[in-house]
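ADP-ribosylglycohydrolase: structure tokens wanted.
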Amino acid sequence: MAKKQATIQFLMFGIAIGESMTLLSNSQQTALLSDPTHFDQPLHWGSHTSLSLTTIASLSRGYQLTDVMNHFQNWYRKRQFAPEKTRQSVDAITKKAMDNYTKNRDTLASGILEETADSEDILVRMLPVALYLHHEYGVSFINDESAMLTLHRIAGLTHNAEGALVSVGMLSLIVSQILEKQPIRDAVENGLAFGFEYYSRHKVFESELAAFEELNLPDFANIPVANIVLDGRSASTLEAVIWSLLNSQNYTEAMMNAFMHGHANSIVPTVVSALAAIIYQEDLIIQASEQLTSRKLIVSVTNQAERLGRFN
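Answer:
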């Protein structure tokens, strides 16, 4: 059953389920992962799922930076892709960027450059962009400056700090390796290697690489979970995501690892769920998705994306 689903649909189900699970109790999380067919609680997703849907809806028709931002604005001002019973919130950086664009109508000047914009909140909505770039440019999209410019500009609509852009790049390169069916350890190793090579060649990004040095160590998977300190910065959250995946053999293990970092963080489980969904493509994910609020909207957006052929 599950194998009939498109990768983009697995990704979005993963994002929505992961974000929804952050609102569940420990016992509810266990019940969902143990037997989703008998789980009878609705799964209420939120703004990260909404922003991912807006991104897909825009890129499904090809890349136009202004169109991506207009889709964001429609979410922010008109609650598009934010149906009833979803949990919508706006982080401070995204809010400031949306308001900037309202004032100046300039996509290249809306994003926040300050260090506070090096935030984990950028990671989720950029996952569909990684699939888009892999489809449009192939696994070697890092060698195409127009592809990397697309990546950085879409991220930079809101979070335009160098650290956030490097984290998005590293994550996207790892995702691209996963889409090539590389084992997760190889996907991480190769993605980081390509990322370090690319960003070390660009002076504006070079100083940001120090934040990824521990993640790049050969034995990173073996570090104690307590060593990963979540401080809201994008690189720290990426560490927790990768650690959770490296120490899993299936979707359930990945999610249990993600929640070892505590309920205080909602981004780690959301990104882990998204990546584990496309890695393992288990029936469990499809079964759990049946409880999602406004599931039909997610299916509609992802079906259109698949039909228009812009995503892997």
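The domain at 2-308 is CATH 1.10.4080.10 (ADP-ribosylglycohydrolase fold). Residues 162-179 form the longest helix (18 residues).

Cheers.
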